[in-house]
Amino acid sequence: MTLAPILLFVYDRPYHTKQTVEALQKNEFSSESELFIYSDAPKNEEVQESVAEVRAYIKQIDGFKKVTIIEREKNRGLANSIIDGVTKIVNEYGKVIVLEDDLVTSPFFLRFMNDALVFYESNKQVWSITGFTYPLKIKNYAFSTYLYERASSKSWAIWKDAWNKIEFREDKIIEKYHLDSLALHLLPYGKDLYKMFLYQLDKKINSWGIRFTINQIMENKYTVYPCCSFVKDIGDDIGTHAKRSLSHKVQLCNIYERCFTLTYDLHIAKAYQRYLQTYFFVSKLYAFKNKLYRLMGVKV
User: Fold this and answer.
1) Which of 2, 54, 147, 214 is the most exposed place for a label (fewest CB within 10 A)?
2) Under a CB-based contact definition with an 8 Å cutoff, are residues 130 and 224 in contact?
3) How far is CA 1 from CA 97, 114, 257, 259, in A?
4) What is the pLDDT of residue 235?
5) What pTM does this model have?
6) Among the residues of 8-150, which ranges form H helices?
């Protein structure tokens, strides 16, 4: 099996970056995998020191077949850096595995991602693979993977053919799919999606993920999810609501069972949608509580 190269995007979080890399080093295929690290340049003076600390750390990384570091000279932002980096490497290698600097992986992560890239390569309904899943509490299900239309940015892998079908230009997305149609079709997959795209249009955010997800949903393609998560999000562990976030409640999978499905399961899809509804309800509840605390002068 030809292993996919790993792309890691880092910025100004040395503590998180170190955890991400150390977990990857413990993966079974790490010593046989090429690692490309994209380090974005500081956006302002406030982060110059932390960016420099990250860059000093990544120069010491070993345990991989080869480590290539790309230090941006100007700040591109995560979205532009990912689109540029993935385009270059996936067109050279044919497939890639992508991580950001706030994800801790199970020792079986690289095995799962590479096995899935091989198994689903000829399935044109599948556009991407992720090592992450929410704790859906799936019962009486015979497989170790499931298919769902919404993509995941919490680790992912993709092939060259699928990546090059994605339209990232907002005007072309609107021209192709139309705003009214987007509002209708995106709703079942999360109330946040259409709102995020409007934020993207208004330049309030710059997200590669929302544009990727829109393409995948509108083209009726799928992401392959594991039933047991090989990835844990540590992104805001030092933030104000890390312990309250449902995405942080996942437990890393400590076993590997290769029993992949080719079938879209409606029962699993409904379970995912119910989980998203709970997730967004709880997120809004905590946001309201935090706002209330701030108004009362309580530190949160």
Assistant:
1) 2
2) yes
3) 15, 8, 18, 18
4) 83
5) 0.89
6) 14-25, 48-58, 77-93, 109-119
